[in-house]
Write a structure and sequence with these properties.
- This protein has 2 domains: about 5-45; about 55-150, no CATH class.
- The chain is built from 5 helices and 3 strands.
- The protein has helices at about 5-20, 30-45, 55-80, 100-110, 140-150, and strands at about 90-95, 115-125, 125-130.
- A hairpin with a 2-residue loop joins strand 2 (about 115-125) and strand 3.
- The longest helix is centred in the middle third of the chain and has 27 residues, at about 55-80.
């Protein structure tokens, strides 16, 4: 664990406190204690790893996520506006290749946020997803999400 890791997290928590406190200077008495406790808890619960975030990967991931969210929202809106619901719900098992740990947690959460999919469970290298329309290319979507996450976290898959 380097001083840089500690400084980056500390700055993140300080900025978060500043935003939550709406920039009020009189909140830093409690804020400083909160920042220190959050920093200690985060370092204990999730020690810094060797993987680093890629800025290029982050931009790609944000773009991918926004596009997928918009597509999922449009799909659900179209389904809701049809006179007869044309759903093909299913529980699918999709193989994943990301290593265990934060990358898989990010994948599971990423796939659950857009409308139309819900991560149900993760069994070793199989992700169980509930989907509203199994006719969509779900496995391709999962592979694409994994590719974006691997670029974001600089992980070879």
């Amino acid at each position: 664990m380097s001083a840089r890791d500690i400084l980056q997290r500390g700055l993140f928590f300080a900025l978060t406190w500043w935003v939550l406190a709406e920039g009020r200077a009189d909140s830093w008495g409690v804020g400083l204690a909160s920042v220190v406790l959050a920093l200690v808890a985060s370092l204990w619960l999730s020690p810094p790893s060797q993987s680093r975030l890629s800025i290029h990967g982050l931009l790609g991931f944000v773009g991918f996520f926004l596009i997928q969210s918009a597509k999922g929202g449009a799909q659900v809106a179209i389904l809701a506006l049809r006179p007869r619901l044309d759903l093909a719900p299913a529980l699918l098992e999709v193989p994943i290749t990301l290593p265990p740990g934060p990358s898989r947690a990010l994948l599971v959460n990423t796939l659950s946020l857009p409308p139309g999919t819900l991560s149900v469970s993760l069994d070793h290298d199989l992700l169980h997803l509930h989907v509203l329309d199994a006719r969509r290319p779900i496995e391709a979507d999962v592979r694409s999400a994994q590719a974006h996450i691997s670029r974001l976290l600089k992980i070879d898959i």
